[in-house]
Protein 1
Amino acid sequence: MKVIKFGGSSLADGAAVAQAIDIIKADPARRVIVTSAPGKRAKADTKVTDLLIKYAAVTAVGGDAAPLQEQIFARYQAIGDYFHLPEKALTPLRTALLALPAGDYPDDDYQLAAFKAHGERLNARLLAAILNHLGIKARFLDPKEAGIIVTGTPNNATVAPETYHLLAQVKLAPDERLVVPGFFGFTLAGYIATFSRGGSDITGAILARGLGAASYENFTDVDAIFAADPHLVDQPAPIKQLTYREMRELSYAGFSVFHDEALLPAIAAKIPIQVKNTKNPAQPGTTIVSDRGFVPSRPVTGISVGKHFAALYLHKYLLNKEAGFTLQILQILNKYGLPYEHMPSGIDDITIVFDATKLTPALVDELCDQIQSTINPDRLEWLPHFALITVVGEGMATAPTTPAEVLATLAKEQIPVLMINQGASKIATMIGTDPADADRAVQAIYSHFFN
Ligand code: ASP
């Protein structure tokens, strides 16, 4: 059995859904289908998830939500009409959409999560109805019935381990297909909570693990995962196969084709993931596999860049002799519930890299004040814009000159390096640069290793 997940652009309109259905029909093993919300039909279009976020905001301030309700429902109606779906099949979708403001929510965050989740929830209902209408036996399975239990915050939830016991009890009749909405689960108290954005990938991986799938197919809008961002590098090499940990490293700092958190359930159950293009399913795509027996074809597999970082630089003489210095910093971060990304240190200084999307200017001020008064560094510098470039490859473990080649390439381009982080796994070298230099750095590194 295979779990197959379609991204938002693969379910954006009737024609796209028809292509997705052809893919479902092409392989009888594709028994569990995970939906995203309808995505963009064109560049200037708005994703249904973003319309639902607006709908939640208007509802929260008691505004007139009718135009948004119509706009959202029209997206599902248009898909239904494409397949000549009878009106009565769409009525429950409209009812559920209009009932959202009257729901029971502990607070605004849970309300937002429930609104957002309906992008996928209604799309899964719709797809199940369309499949049945076309004579393909399908059953809508809500995460509540399936047993997808989540913990954590309402809009950034984490799957709870008991989910896998519950999923093991899901029955799948030999002739039926299940259609499950991605992106959300239920808390133990029974409220909807969503994963972070792009989180339908996570649902697919949870189902693949919980239902014991042989593989997890992720259909999206690109032919493959590429060795570098196609917006930065002209026709980058497609990656045929890469390991889970290479993918984790790459998606952490920039590759957005596949959600990094979605790898964890697949890793736990050693399920291969295939990323393929809905509009071009004959292309081989990219397969993500375990590193056991993996033979890399070149030292570097991919180069990613993330520009959403910030860094705190601290300098203090004899820092290396001062016990408890790092502990004090960590205690301050802990007080603000703030995770850090990296903390490379020297004998007299330390750099702490943060995900800037988790910061506000007020929080930065407070953090710097606290660190200044508690630790009393000789120098404290806040770098609000910081880019991280990650050069990744299982092949780097046996090609020890790779980090030196990366640095030499940057030196040739006269790009200053603000940080170097090379873990003992030897499969990733991380370089901090000024965001203004980052694209050029990726182009130069790509050209050195691939051209
Ligand atoms: N629809 C959600 C989002 O836009 C989740 C997903 O697409 O995977 O983030």
Protein 2
Amino acid sequence: MTFGRFAPSPTSDLHLGNLRTALLSWLFARDAGLGYLLRIEDLDQQRVASAPHVAEHQVRDLAALGLDWDGEVVRQSDRFDLYRDASAGLETYECYCTRREIAEASRAPHGSYRPYPGTCARLTIAERAERRRTRPAAIRVRARDAVMSVADLHAGQVSGRVDDFVLFRADGTPAYNLAVVVDDGLQGVSQVCRGADLLDSSPRQAWLASRLGFQVPQYIHVGLAVNQSGDRLAKRDGAVTLGELSSRGVGVGEVFQTLRGSAGLPAAGSPTGLLRAVAGTDWWQTPAIWQPWVVVPEL
Ligand code: GLU
């Protein structure tokens, strides 16, 4: 069996946009007859410590919405050894650049992501020894200007240049792009449904997946929730989490209806009912799934 998944970072409670992406990822997986996994992406232990219990809230809210998943919830913080082992055969190099140096040396950012300009790829042994004395090194993969193309259900073929992205941060923490690819590969994830903000990361991740010998998954990038100014929905945009909504008398059933309606999906009283309602149809052809969803506070 292969799987779809939802993989939240436990930095703050899930807001309506995250819940909508979760619902859609569940629906895509279950409608395709796949299993469904929940994975907590808690690589950044400092951020996790500053927001305790968020992961538990996320799991609770997803269950309250009526989603179910197969097996235990996996936490990336338990899997650092796997990321280390998986990356052992990759061609890598040490990088001593600070964020600022990268910003100064790189061309215009690509979205919020700055492709690495390759500064440390060309250091001599003497230069490397010198820098190693002053700064801890991050580890980057040597991608040799690879170009990778992925298939996205809505966006079609998406091609991107693969830069020498970070595998391990200077403090030794595995980086998101490494962990997500290793987990999806080892867990048998064949369908990656997530927010459209990650579409640009897909060629990079697919390239790494194929380097590590994993099957490249099918990608499905759905529309993001935005506020009325068109910016990504955030907690400051009002009552946007299940907890806040329920303290205003908005129950989880009403939230489900809002999410379902926002994606143009057929009438149903629960995710399981929705799964029955869409069975055998081309439900993903509805444009609302792919467009940004403008959230008006308090529903
Ligand atoms: N953990 C990532 C996030 O919350 C999502 C990763 C993914 O779905 O690939 O943005």
Protein 3
Amino acid sequence: MTSPVRVRFAPSPTGKLHIGGARTAIYNWAFARSHQGTFILRIDDTDPTRSTKENTEIILRALRWLGLDWDEGPDAGGDFGPYAQAERLDIYQKTAQRLLEEGHAYPCFCTQEMLAQDREEAKARKDPNQGYQKRCRHLTHDEAQRRMEAGEPYTLRIKVPENRGDIIIDDAVHGRVVFDAHEVDDFVILRSNGTPTYNFATVVDDAAMQISHVIRGDDHLSNTPRQVMVYEALGAPTPIFAHISMILGADGKKLSKRHGATSVEEYRDAGYVSDAFVNYLALLGWSLDGETTIIPRDVLASRFSLDRISKNPATFDPKKLDWMNAEYISAMDDSRFADEILLPELVEAGFVEVGDEFDESWIDALASIVKPRTKFLGDAAPIAEPVFQHADTLVFDERSVAKGLAPEGMGKVLDAAEEVLSHLKNTDWNPETIDAALETLPEALDMKKRQVFQAVRVAICGNLVSPPLGQTMALIGSKDCLARLKRARGLAG
Ligand code: GLU
């Protein structure tokens, strides 16, 4: 029987959730979901100077916005908690103590100065091992004991076995990676103040939480041989490692602030749809079949596999993300667009209030004209705005007035439009009858169709870029449309 899939995303709350972290979280989540596994969120907050509660909250909020639900972790609980490292200090200390007792770790009393001097000397003689020179490894048990009891400060170091040989990692992305054991010195696992180092805390937790696969950024590949040493000292099985490539900006450099927005929140606030954002990030280094680009969340959650992760760095392309965002919006049906985008945006803009009741077909009709023009969530309310104005509150765009209303003869157009439209009874007030009525005007007035429609459009919507006229006017209603035509008469040439 193969062991169940248990994976974790382990952010350090030293900042916001960035694109790279979000992609790591997505891969872990998608891998767990695709393999009926468990997705664990663990907060790696052992660095008290840089970790904050606010950052943890921001990260949780970002993960929720991404729709990455975790099975175990903060708020969710689970059998392997606590899920914040700052709450697990006693576990690290007890485990380090156990390794000390079993002879897999030893106390080191070297001062910073001694360590620096050893390093300098190793450098000067071009020693292949420029790490810790193992001074304290050879202290007798009694001496070490005596100095610890005398209260001398000490760290605990792992004892890398003599003749360990190469450390081989069969990485699910990079394949076989061989590290010379000499590169791994007897590194510190517990500092003199009792806090664990990253390589120790991570492995203690990954072992205790029975993590089966460690999927993380390949900036951690170089830490992995050290971590393997800890697994071996603990007598715990090593998980499968999958180190995912870096994300680069268009200039081939590691993605950073210089390339624009990097935090998930900034994308949320800029009006990206969570599903589109997740889809786009998933494709930064992974592919379903090498060609499919639109991969809905449920497909990602059933078909994600490690063997289709690329070793090569991925390039972040904001244009492709924008394209994908627009694709997701246009693929929504009108009711979903109305519920998930339009109404929340209208509430946000103050055009409607939570709890306002709308006729379903009316709101769907509005959605159908707003949706094709919406590339980002924030576009929706301004596009719909004219519908929520009234004849007396409508704001006119100056340039549109100058172009569409002010030229000579436009007053005549508005009069004629009012005349033909006033004949439409309320029951006949629909996009087809409105358009048909307006269609008669160019010939009757001997004017260009474009001019006629522009004038009416500016009178009704205040600008030249609004959605199709008949549909918009049907939504506004006959009474207010006629009042708008009257009001605009004062601006028309
Ligand atoms: N807290 C570490 C980080 O944010 C986790 C690395 C790991 O996944 O082991 O980089």
